[in-house]
Amino acid sequence: MSDQLPESVGYRIIGHVDDFTSFPASVTIDRDPYFIIQTTGQEDAPSEYKLVSAICPHAGGVVRPWENELICPLHYWSFDSTTGQSTNVPGEQLDCRPIQIHEGQFTIAVSS
Ligand code: FES
């Protein structure tokens, strides 16, 4: 069995960068809710964007932005809105994947 990752066959466009003016930004992909989040940039590591699922890993609630967090209304697990990592349940985090910017569009890699 190969240990190589599957080859990317392309990118899927999420939306034009200029259409998103604040983060986390709510988006729907294939009827599933997500947020585009922006990581906190630092001098040696500029900020980047990630796509995080809005589905809570506890029992499937849909998280909502509240101040600097994404909060699940079912049992109040909370997640940092710049990383997707839980702020009150150690080791838990929202599903997260990288976002690239191509020709002014937020995109995610699509593999076969
Ligand atoms: S389903 Fe989100 S905290 Fe329980």
From TrEMBL:
In what residue span(s) does the Rieske domain sit? 11-108
The protein in question is named Rieske (2Fe-2S) protein
The record's annotation in PROSITE patterns points to: RIESKE
Q: Which UniProt keywords apply?
A: 2Fe-2S, Iron, Iron-sulfur, Metal-binding
> What Gene3D superfamilies does the record tag this protein with?
Rieske [2Fe-2S] iron-sulphur domain (2.102.10.10)
This protein's species is: Paenibacillus sepulcri
| The organism's taxonomic lineage, starting at the top | Bacteria, Bacillati, Bacillota, Bacilli, Bacillales
Q: Which domain of life is it from?
A: Bacteria
- Note the coiled coil stretches, chain numbering: none
